[in-house]
Each structure stands twice: as structure tokens, then as C-alpha cells.
Amino acid sequence: MATFITELIAMVALAAVLYVLIQILPRINDAEVERVTSRLSFHGLVGRLEKVDEFIAAVFHKFLRRTRVVILKLDNVVGKKLNEMKKESIGKESPFQAEVEEEKKDQSV
Predict the structure, then answer these.
(1) How far apart are CA 59 and CA 62, in angstroms?
(2) Alpha carbon distance 36, 30 (integer Å)
(3) pLDDT at 41
């Protein structure tokens, strides 16, 4: 019960902090934001940064697509190898077969 009360107090305190932060947010002036962006655009940084961002996004997208293809190819190779091993071991007795049979006997007793 003490844990519940402690958690309840913590959640109420968190809600109070969030409420205060939400009340403060509208006080930020749009003029200040425009002034900062005008300085950046004056220096020509905004256009360059957007081009760099687009380039990085395109390179990252290509990298992810190629990585996905490599992973899928690797998955196919592993699947084929497992199927080959399964076909080879169908006729053979597994080295762990005796242990499995002993466990079954122990569980039935």
C-alpha cells in the first residue's frame, strides 16, 4: 500500500510539472524565432543544410535497402544449408537421441 501511495504522489508531481511547462510554452515569441531563422538564411546556411540533409537521407535510404537485400540473401543461404543438413540427418541417428529417450523415460516414471 505504501508503494502505491508513493507512486501516486510521484505521478501527481509529474503531472503538475507537465502542466506548468505547458503553461509556459505559449510565452515564446514568434518574432524571436523569425529573427534567428532570418540570421541563418542571411548567411545561406539554411539552403545548404537542407541539401545536406536530403543527401544524407538518400544515402542512408540506399544503405538500408542494400543492407536489407544482403540480410535476405544471407537468410536464404542459411535456410538452404539447414535444409541440406536436415535431409542428410534423416537416415542417421542423432548423437543426442539416447539422451532424449532417457529423458522421456524419466518423465514417464
Answers:
(1) 5
(2) 10
(3) 58
For residue 79, give the C-alpha cell: 535456410
For 27, the grid coordinates are 510565452
Helix (H, G, I), strand (E, B) or coil at 94: coil
DSSP state of 95: T
- Residue 69 half-sphere exposure, CB side, CA atoms within 13 Å? 5
pTM of the predicted structure, to 2 decimals: 0.43
* CB-based contact 45:37 (threshold 8 Å): no
Kindly state the DSSP code that residue 109 receives in the 8-state scheme.
-
Q: Do 16 and 10 contact (CB within 8 A), yes or no?
A: no
Q: How far apart are CA 66 and CA 55, in angstroms?
A: 17
Round to whole Å and give the CA distance between 93 and 49. 65
- 46 and 37 in contact (C-beta within 8 Å)? yes
Provide the residue type at 77 as one letter.
Answer: V
